[in-house]
Design brief:
By secondary structure, this protein is an alpha/beta fold. It has 2 domains: about 220 residues, Rossmann fold, CATH 3.40.50; about 60 residues, YebC, transcriptional regulation domain (Alpha-Beta Plaits). The protein is about 35% helix and about 25% strand. It has 11 helices and 14 strands. Helix 5 packs parallel to helix 6.
Length: about 300
C-alpha cells in the first residue's frame, strides 16, 4: 500500500492494482514552453477523475501523452497497473479537443467507419447510438448535427470496442446549457451503468463539480494537488476560526448557545457557522469576559478553494 503525495493532506491509500492510470514525473517540454512538469497523476478504477485547470494549464498535453499522441520528454506512464502501454491503450476510448467525424456521413455510417478502422466487429453500433441518445438520428447526416449531438457522436465513437477507461478533453466546452446537461447525464450514465472509469478535463468548475469523484488540480504544467470530492467538500465548507484567552470556557459557552461542530486545532476554535454569526459570537464571548484575539472567516465554496490553489 502507498500514500499519494499531494501538497495538502494525502488521499486515502489504495493498492496500485486499482490504478488505471499512474504517471511518475511525467514531463513534456516544447521549444519555448514547459507544458507538463513532473506530473504524478493517479486515476483509480471506477472514479470520475476531473483534471481541472485554466486554459493552457497542461491538461490536454497530459492526456495526449497518456494516449500516445505526444511523446513525453521525461517520466513514465503505467496503464492498468502495467508498463505495456500499447496493450493498455487498446482498453481506452478518447475524445480529444473535438470529435473527428465524417460530416457527409450519417451517424451510423460514422460508427461503421470507425469500427472498421479499429478492427472492431462486435460492438452493437445501433445500440450504442441509442445509449448516447442518438437512436432517432442514426440516419441523419452528422454535419447537420448540433454541437451537443456531435459531442455525443464523438463519445459514441470513443465507446467502440467497449473500453474500460474513457478520456474526454473539455467535452462540454462551447455547449449551451441543454447540451451541457445532456453530456453530464451521459457521463454519469456511462460510469454508473457500464462501470466506465472517466478522466475528464475542464476549466468549468461548476460543471465538473457535478460529476467528479476525484480532482487533479493542474496549474502551469504542474499537478498542484489531487483531492477526493468528499475531502474537497470538507475543505470548502465555510466557517469561523476563533482564538480566545480561555478556549475551554469559550467552547462550552458556544455549545450552550447552539453553535455545533466545534473542534480545537492548534489553539484555535474552528466551527462551521457562517460569517453572519461572527458579530453575535464575538459579543457573546466578550460579555462572558473571554478576550477574543482572532475571529476570521474561512472557506466559501469550491470556487474560492480552486482560486486559492490555482492563483488569480
Amino acid at each position: 500500500m502507498e500514500t499519494i503525495k499531494t501538497m495538502g493532506p494525502a488521499l486515502t491509500p489504495w493498492d496500485r492494482s486499482e490504478y488505471v492510470i499512474e504517471t511518475n514525473a511525467l514531463t513534456k517540454r516544447f521549444p519555448k514552453t514547459l507544458a507538463a512538469d513532473r506530473v504524478d497523476l493517479h486515476v483509480r478504477r471506477g472514479d470520475i477523475y476531473g483534471l481541472i485547470g485554466k486554459n493552457g494549464a497542461g491538461k490536454t498535453t497530459v492526456m495526449k501523452m497518456i494516449l500516445g499522441i505526444l511523446t513525453p520528454t521525461a517520466g513514465s506512464i503505467s496503464l492498468f497497473g502495467s508498463d505495456a502501454l500499447a496493450a493498455g491503450r487498446k482498453r481506452i476510448g478518447s475524445l480529444i479537443e473535438a470529435p473527428g467525424i465524417y460530416k457527409n456521413c450519417t451517424a451510423l455510417e460514422n460508427l461503421k467507419r470507425f469500427a472498421l478502422l479499429s478492427g472492431d466487429k462486435t460492438t452493437d453500433l445501433v445500440g450504442l447510438l441509442q445509449f448516447v441518445g442518438l437512436g432517432t438520428a442514426a440516419n441523419r447526416r452528422a454535419g447537420a448535427f448540433s454541437l451537443g449531438m456531435k459531442q455525443r457522436l464523438g463519445i459514441a465513437i470513443a465507446l467502440i470496442g467497449d473500453p474500460e477507461l474513457l478520456i474526454l478533453d473539455e467535452p462540454i466546452n462551447g455547449l449551451d446549457p441543454a447540451g451541457i446537461k445532456e453530456i453530464r447525464e451521459l457521463i454519469l450514465k456511462l460510469n454508473r451503468e457500464k462501470g466506465v472509469t472517466m478522466m475528464i478535463s475542464s476549466h468549468l468548475l461548476d460543471e465538473l463539480g457535478k460529476v467528479a469523484t476525484v480532482y487533479g488540480i493542474i496549474n502551469g504544467g504542474e499537478l498542484v494537488e489531487e483531492v477526493s470530492a468528499a475531502e474537497l467538500a470538507e475543505r470548502s465548507r465555510e466557517g469561523l476560526r476563533i482564538r480566545t484567552s480561555d478556549p475551554k470556557r469559550a467552547v462550552a459557552l458556544l455549545r450552550e448557545n447552539g453553535v455545533a461542530e466545534i473542534t480545537v486545532k492548534e489553539d484555535a476554535i474552528v466551527t462551521h457557522v457562517g460569517a453572519e454569526r461572527a458579530a453575535e459570537i464575538n459579543a457573546l464571548l466578550v460579555k462572558a469576559g473571554i478576550d477574543v484575539s482572532e475571529l476570521t472567516n474561512f472557506g466559501g465554496g469550491f470556487e474560492d478553494y480552486f482560486i486559492q490553489r490555482l492563483g488569480k
